[in-house]
Inverse folding.
């Protein structure tokens, strides 16, 4: 059998400096079934006030603290308790002032019309009930909003983690494919790792923002991904490429961009991959852009990539030493390469960076 929840007793606080009035009103309220607490003045009523009373009845003219000041302090507590003022006959201006200050109602004394008194108290109690319901609803709504917000934040965090993990996994796959391609030719093995190391050293020495360095790192790791569909015989060919073979090799930046295009998180990296063989003077490929059209990260990878190409042995030629390669970079600074990037990298290679 279901257990009925016990109904809460309605509590009323009355403050009046006249002991006879307090006692008379308290007896009436008790007769109506209310639990009554009495105070001798406004100060006493306010001093022990908490959210327990459902209605407060205040006399206006009281020593120590009158009803108006008591009402002001009660309002500051923001308990939402309706306040009814007791006012003597002929004190209607007091009643109007009390209502303007936020009192719920007023009752003239002596209390002769018990039915009207009961109705006023019941309405105040109902008002208190509505206030409590509204506050409970708001608290519950706030709780639900906090819970839903917390759930949403957690889902967003999980989604962000998943997205990051997916990005890492995708990039790792691309890097594995590029590494596998490089390993087919002993001369190009390790090219991506070295280019990444050189480029990151330059970016750090130039004070590139960490977020931009991460973009550069990812671009370095996939800058030659377009060579995946280039016939490996071209890459390993012991002699010079034919015009047709060279034309195909020159397409690898565009092919790399197309391979990476579905990866929305690599938008900037796509531009770097496409342009890493462009020259400052506009004689590079595939678009023949130059000057300010080539961003800093692309200029950095161009120097790192060319340095590694010059210092790595190829099937069709020998390699340059670090000093010779740096000398070549400086010779082409201003035409093929950014002079500032070349200067910074030269200092790194020479141990001054």
């Amino acid at each position: 059998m279901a257990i009925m929840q016990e109904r809460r007793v309605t509590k009323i606080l009355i403050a009046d400096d006249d002991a006879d009035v307090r006692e008379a009103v308290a007896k009436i309220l008790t007769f109506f079934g209310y639990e009554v607490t009495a105070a001798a003045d406004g100060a006493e009523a306010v001093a022990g006030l908490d959210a327990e009373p459902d209605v407060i009845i205040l006399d206006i003219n009281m020593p120590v603290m009158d009803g108006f000041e008591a009402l002001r302090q009660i309002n500051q507590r923001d308990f939402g308790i309706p306040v009814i003022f007791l006012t003597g006959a002929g004190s209607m201006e007091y009643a109007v002032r009390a209502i303007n200050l936020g009192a719920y109602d007023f009752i003239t004394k002596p209390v002769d019309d018990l039915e009207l008194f009961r109705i006023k108290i019941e309405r105040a109690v109902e008002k208190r009930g509505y206030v409590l319901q509204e506050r409970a609803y708001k608290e519950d709504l706030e709780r639900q909003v906090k819970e839903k917000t917390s759930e949403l934040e957690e889902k967003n965090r999980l989604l962000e983690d998943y997205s990051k993990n997916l990005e890492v996994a995708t990039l790792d796959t691309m890097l594995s494919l590029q590494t596998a391609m490089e390993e087919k030719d002993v001369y190009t093995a390790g090219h991506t790792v070295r280019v990444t190391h050189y480029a990151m050293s330059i970016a750090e020495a130039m004070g590139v923002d960490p977020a931009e360095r991460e973009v550069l790192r990812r671009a370095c790791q996939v800058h030659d991904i377009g060579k995946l569909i280039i016939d490996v015989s071209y890459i390993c060919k012991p002699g010079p490429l034919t015009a047709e073979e060279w034309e195909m090799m020159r397409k690898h930046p565009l092919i790399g961009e197309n391979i990476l295009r579905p990866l929305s998180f690599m938008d900037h990296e796509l531009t770097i991959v496409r342009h890493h063989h462009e020259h400052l003077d506009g004689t590079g490929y595939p678009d023949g852009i130059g000057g300010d059209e080539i961003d800093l990260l692309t200029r950095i990878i161009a120097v790192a990539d060319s340095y590694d190409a010059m210092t790595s042995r190829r099937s069709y030629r020998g390699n340059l030493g670090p000093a010779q390669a740096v000398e070549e970079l400086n010779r082409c600074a201003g035409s093929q390469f950014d002079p500032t990037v070349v200067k910074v990298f030269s200092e790194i290679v020479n141990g001054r960076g």
Q: What stands out?
A: Residues 114-183 form the longest helix (70 residues). Residues 11-138 form a domain with the Rossmann fold fold (CATH 3.40.50.2300). Confidence is low (pLDDT under 50) at residues 1-6.
